[in-house]
Amino acid sequence: MIKRTLSLSFIGLGFAALFAGHAQAMSLLASVGQQDVIAYKVKSGDTLLELSRKYFVSSAGISEVARINQLEDADRIKVGQTLSIPRQSVKHWSSVAHVMGMSCASSFTPEQGSTQLVAGTPLHEGAWIKVPAGCHTSLLLEDSSTVRLPSGAVLRLSTLRKNALEKSPEVRLELANGRVELDVMKERSPLTPFEIRTPRSVMGVRGTQFRVGFSAETQGSLVEVMQGVVQTRGSADPEFVDLSQGMGVAIDASGKASTPETLLPPPQYASFSKSALQTGELLVRLQRMENADRFQADIATTATLSGLRRTEQWARPEFKIDRLINQAMFYQVAAVSKNGLLGEAAWMAFCAARVSPEQAGCSAVFETPLADVASIAFTLNRRTEASNQEVIRTTHLTALNGKFAVKDLRPGYYTWSLSYTLAKAAADQTGVYQSGAFELIALPASAP
């Protein structure tokens, strides 16, 4: 049996070689000047002296604010006036990320020693995260943004801090290898930095869902945008490029970005049949797609894509399911282009129909590992061509061992959302908010 661990550290962990060219990518951020200042709207009674006492690192910030905003008289600022305040002049403190879910027995390795990593473990600025092959983990930031790290990812929380003038934390991540998937809170101010860097590229985010990949072996980067806008630039590129929803770009080892391309659309379920090689095994076929080099799926036992999870790739638009049960198994399926860009994902959930597919009463499991004894607000809707049917709406759901199940679901397309507060959350911490969708497909346990 191979022991798998997820390691985190505040020391180098031998990754220095992966960042040999990293200074070049970091220098690119200087041109994103908007994120170096905080926009503050002057309130009644405000003076620069009073703002300095409350928020500035030192009184030197007064003259700096006066210079940047071209104030003729630093003693006079107007109510409603918006001041640009240099970020480095403002007091800040540590923000905290929490481990939200993971699939392997894992350990946390701070400088002083090692301790078991569990759901809820707090992580701070400077932490390294290394996800072993076959494992995954997810992190929750204080503003409800989530960071998912698939198998093989190596990531550093290089900046994770807050200040009194902004609601959301400043976040800067460094990806040294593998992939990272981000769901950034849409209400974040565009002036509050949320950036991710690789040794060959840098990305600035404006409220979005996106993925970034970097191969330490080939030194190439990938950026794929599902929602919102990502501003990206290779280390050898003269300008940043805005990537909007449904677009992606590959960046080669020299730091040169390719022409942005449209991501491949979500694959669609076509049919199934009994496998000729294995008793009880089903072969699921997808509709054929032009320009697809291969297909990839993240497979999980829960609709939240946490807990037990694995990743598979197939050369053809088909895959095998070893065994079907009444509890749905979730597949997040996407096509991969010839440039290696992962397309838009389709959520499919497969379960066994005990009578007929139309009358199947399947169950779906949702994982809420940080809920503790908190009440969970949960909605589930089933969408048909004719209507949008509300299946569940509650604000008082309770999880058992970090999970809850919804039973007796018929095949169809479902959308869901859940939210809850953390038991030991700070006063300004948002809590957990997640949403998603899946197509529930019931197949007979004994296929033709």
How would you explain this protein's 3D organization?
There is one protein chain. With 448 residues, the protein is mainly beta. It folds into two domains: 194 residues, Jelly Rolls (Sandwich), CATH 2.60.120; 185 residues, Immunoglobulin-like (Sandwich), CATH 2.60.40. The chain has a 15-stranded mixed sheet that branches. An eight-stranded mixed sheet has the order 23-22-25-26-32-31-28-29, with no helix packed on it. The protein has a three-stranded antiparallel sheet with strand order 20-21-24, with no helix packed on it. The longest helix is centred in the first third of the chain and has 9 residues. The N terminus is likely disordered.
Summarize the structure.
This protein has 448 residues and is mostly beta strands. The chain has helices spanning 22-27, 48-55, 60-68; strands spanning 7-9, 37-41, 82-86, 92-94, 97-102, 106-108, 115-117, 122-123, 128-130, 137-140, 146-149, 154-163, 170-183, 194-198, 201-214, 221-234, 241-243, 247-251, 261-262, 269-274, 282-286, 294-300, 309-314, 318-321, 329-336, 346-353, 362-367, 376-383, 388-397, 403-409, 412-420, 432-444.
